[in-house]
Each structure stands twice: as C-alpha cells, then as structure tokens.
C-alpha cells in the first residue's frame, strides 16, 4: 500500500519505518527542514536501538520518503496522524496540531477512498472532530476516520511495533477496519476491533492502569520502609499471583516520559469534565510526585555533604529522552540546596545540557562522575551501572555512599562491601 505519516516523533518515525520494512511505499511529512534533511540522510534524530539500520535499509530501498509537502496524501490509501498532544496546564490534551493537520489532510485527499487514522493519543471524541473538519474542507471526499492507538515503548520501540501484544483498530465501518487489518497483516498480535470511542479510550486506560501499577508499587515501597519490610519480597509475593503478575510493578523514583504523566492527567481531566470522580487517578499522580520528593529527602538525609555524582538522567534506560524524567525534577531541588552535581548518562547528556547548561557538570564516563564524590545517586537503571565493578566504585568515591532510586544492587552485598546504601522500599544498610 501507499501510506503517509504526518509526524516523525517516536511513534510516527518508528511505525513508518516498520511499514516500509513490510514492503509498503511510505511518505513521512514533517515541517522542520533541518530534521527532514537528517532523516533523508539516515540520521533518525532520536536514539532508539536498531532504528538507524531499519531507517537506512528502507531509504536505500526507496520505499521511505521524507517531505514537507502534503502532496503525498493524495496518493495514499491510509494517512496516519502521529503528531504530539502535549498537556495544557489543566492536564487537558492540546489538540491544536492534530486538528490543523486534519485540515491539511482534508485539502490534499485524492479521488480514491482513504482512511485517515489517528495514532496520536487523543481524548474520546477527537476522531469525530477530525472527521467533521475534513468534511468541512472537502464536501465530497471518499474517506473514513479510524483510531489506531500505538503502544510502543521507547527503548524497545521496534520490537513493540513488529511484535505487539495487540493491534487496536477503532472505526465507523467495516470498510475502514478491513483496510487497516490488511495493512497490519505482516505484524503479530491479537486484533481488537471496535468503535472509534472504544479505541480512543483503550489507549488512555492502558497507560493509566500501567501508571497505577507503578504508583501502587511505590506506595508499597513507602510502607515497606515504614514497617521494616523489603519491597522486593513483598512485590514478588503478590506478583506471583497470576491474576496480578509482576510485570510493571517495579518501585523506583516514579514514572516519567512523554506518555504516563500526560495521559493519566488527560484521562483525569476527561472524567472530571464528565462529572466522574477521578480520585483513583488523582492518587496515582499524587504518589508519583510524592515519591520524587521523598527520594530528594532521602538524598539530603543520607548525603549531607554536597559534592555528589549522578548516574542516569533519561526517564528510563535505552533512551535519550528526558521528558518528565524524575532525575530532572530531583536535580532541580538539589540545586536549590546548593548541591554540586556531576552527572553521567550514556545517551541523554546532550539533551540535559541544552536545559541545565552549566548548572551542573557533565562526565564522559560513569567512573568519572563517581570520582572523589561524597555520594553517588542512581536515577536510571542502565545496564552499565548494574554491571559496574563495585570494588572500583568504592575506590573512586570519596565516601562510599550510594542512594539508588532503582534498586539495582543487593543491600546485604553493599553492606558487606562497606557501602552506606539507601534504596527504595528496603532498609538503608
Ligand atoms: C509507555 C507505555 O509503556 C507504552 O505502551 C506507550 O505507548 C507509551 O508510554 P514509555 O513511556 O516509552 O512507554 O516507557 P515505559 O517503559 O512504559 O516506562 C514509563 C516510566 O515508568 C519510566 O519512567 C519507567 O522508569 C517507569 N517504570 C516502568 C517504573 O517506574 N516501574 C515499572 O515497573 C515500569
């Protein structure tokens, strides 16, 4: 098929590359010349394992095209909207870009049947708005709208797109659904088809329940510390019940990224405006904030001397993304307390430099960030931290103090090695 994506962020770019790899002719529309030129030259702009190879392969095969022109729309059978929906201060999703894009698509639809599919995470009802906008622009066009939410995770985006657990397709009629089922034929995973509204709600509900699991794990971590339990033991004890499961139940310094914080707030806003008591999700967001504040308090209590090293800045491993990264929030508070911070992250340093500039120092290696420091703080569980030689780490640090926000080491081992080791939901040793 010939298909077009509007937007080349994580969702647009990765999904476009995957559909090109499956043999489709894929156009990707963007508006920043510099970014488009990089993409045309095989630079994926974002750090995502494996993406560069798939991008290059499909550029070479001439199945993947980057453009700033909406002309590609008129030769496409399916047009995906994959642009951002950032939160407004109220938590409500900002739909201005999505609706603008809908207008442009309307103006450029071809003379044949097209399905305009929204991959952006949008409140229930948005696809009907998109439909209305397009109908206003072109009275006679032969098109349907569909909601095809995306569930890929940064860091494993390609695998998640090639082998998803499920593909959700919400549409008004069978014609649109069947065309999208055909497009997705090369991918594994269960198919879930339904109404536009169901598909729109599935995306918010999925992210919200995952965020709820994490906040629940963090709440139990907090209680574990109070009662002298070990949160890892507690969560293993409940996660082995197959009705609960132990995936996505790791406590830490809170969830970040471009989806969970935004989508939980957006669903809270949707419910509240409909008169539904959204207390459950308010609680999820509140715990996520409290857990970061408590981690900051833990740093202050465990590391009163203020020349500290930081490992990990991205909101999770295997990405350079720092949006809503817990590290960023906590570092901001530590700076207000005059901590001197030297940070190392395998991929995210450049992004942090753009925002924090010389407010903190940056290291090229984990060892350098730890050298001569009064304490080491771990915000992100990159593999290279898990595998770091702890004897060397002890020699590097001025004081053997580690505050670990991701529970990557064993407290007993750390105690035996002579570290002061504070983690999450476990006794400081
Ligand atoms: C998420 C969803 O998983 C994905 O399906 C959706 O399409 C987009 O949002 P992503 O934001 O890339 O993906 O990352 P994810 O792996 O879900 O992690 C989100 C945050 O939760 C990270 O900050 C991570 O550190 C945190 N997390 C995750 C925990 O604190 N504990 C866990 O057990 C799992």
Assign the structural class, choosing from mainly alpha, mainly beta, alpha/beta, alpha+beta, or little secondary structure.
Answer: alpha/beta
Q: Quick one: CATH class of the largest domain?
A: Alpha Beta
Ends: how far apart?
Answer: 60 Å
Strand order of the largest sheet: 3-2-1-4-5-6-7-8
CATH topology of the largest domain: Rossmann fold
Which stretches are poorly predicted, pLDDT < 50 over at least 5 residues? none
User: Judging by the overall fold, what is the CATH architecture of the largest domain?
Assistant: 3-Layer(aba) Sandwich
DSSP strand count: 14
Q: If you average the pLDDT, what whole number results? A: 96
Bound molecules: uridine-5'-diphosphate-xylopyranose
Largest sheet: 8 strands, mixed
Summed up, the domain count is 2
């Amino acid at each position: 098929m010939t298909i077009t994506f509007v937007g080349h962020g994580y969702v647009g770019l990765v999904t476009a590359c995957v559909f090109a790899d499956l043999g489709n002719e894929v156009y990707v529309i963007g508006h920043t010349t510099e970014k488009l030129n990089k993409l045309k030259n095989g630079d994926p702009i974002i750090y995502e394992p494996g993406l560069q190879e798939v991008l290059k392969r499909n550029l070479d095969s001439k199945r993947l095209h980057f453009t700033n022109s909406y002309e590609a729309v008129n030769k496409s059978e399916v047009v995906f909207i994959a642009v951002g929906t950032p939160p407004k201060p109220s938590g409500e999703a900002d739909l201005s870009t999505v609706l603008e894009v809908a207008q442009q698509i309307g103006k450029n639809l071809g003379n044949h049947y097209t399905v305009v599919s929204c991959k952006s995470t949008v409140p229930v009802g948005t696809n009907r708005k998109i439909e209305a906008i397009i109908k206003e622009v072109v009275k006679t066009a032969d098109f349907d709208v569909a909601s095809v939410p995306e569930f890929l995770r940064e860091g494993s985006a390609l695998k998640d797109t090639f082998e998803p657990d499920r593909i959700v397709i919400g549409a008004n009629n069978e014609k649109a659904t069947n065309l999208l089922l055909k497009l997705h034929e090369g991918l594994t995973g269960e198919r879930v088809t339904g109404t536009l509204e169901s598909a729109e709600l599935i995306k918010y509900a999925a992210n919200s329940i995952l965020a709820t699991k994490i906040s629940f794990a963090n709440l139990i971590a907090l209680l574990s510390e109070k009662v002298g339990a070990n949160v890892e033991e507690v969560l293993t004890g409940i996660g082995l019940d197959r009705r609960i499961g132990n995936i996505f139940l790791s406590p830490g310094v809170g969830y970040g990224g471009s989806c969970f914080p935004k989508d939980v707030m957006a669903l809270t806003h949707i419910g509240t405006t409909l008169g539904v008591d959204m207390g459950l999700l308010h609680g999820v967001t509140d715990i996520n904030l409290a857990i970061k504040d408590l981690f900051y308090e833990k740093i202050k209590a465990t590391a009163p001397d203020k020349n500290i090293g930081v490992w990990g800045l991205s909101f999770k491993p295997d990405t350079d993304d720092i949006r809503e990264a817990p590290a960023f929030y906590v570092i901001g508070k530590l700076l207000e307390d005059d901590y001197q911070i030297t940070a190392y992250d395998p991929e995210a340093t450049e992004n942090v430099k753009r925002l924090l500039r010389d407010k903190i120092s940056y290291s090229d290696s984990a060892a350098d960030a730890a050298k001569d420091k009064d304490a080491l703080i771990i915000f992100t569980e990159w593999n290279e931290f898990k595998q770091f030689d702890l004897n060397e780490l002890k020699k590097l640090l001025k004081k053997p103090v580690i505050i670990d926000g991701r529970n990557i080491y064993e407290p007993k081992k750390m105690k035996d090695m002579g570290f002061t080791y504070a983690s999450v939901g476990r006794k400081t040793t």
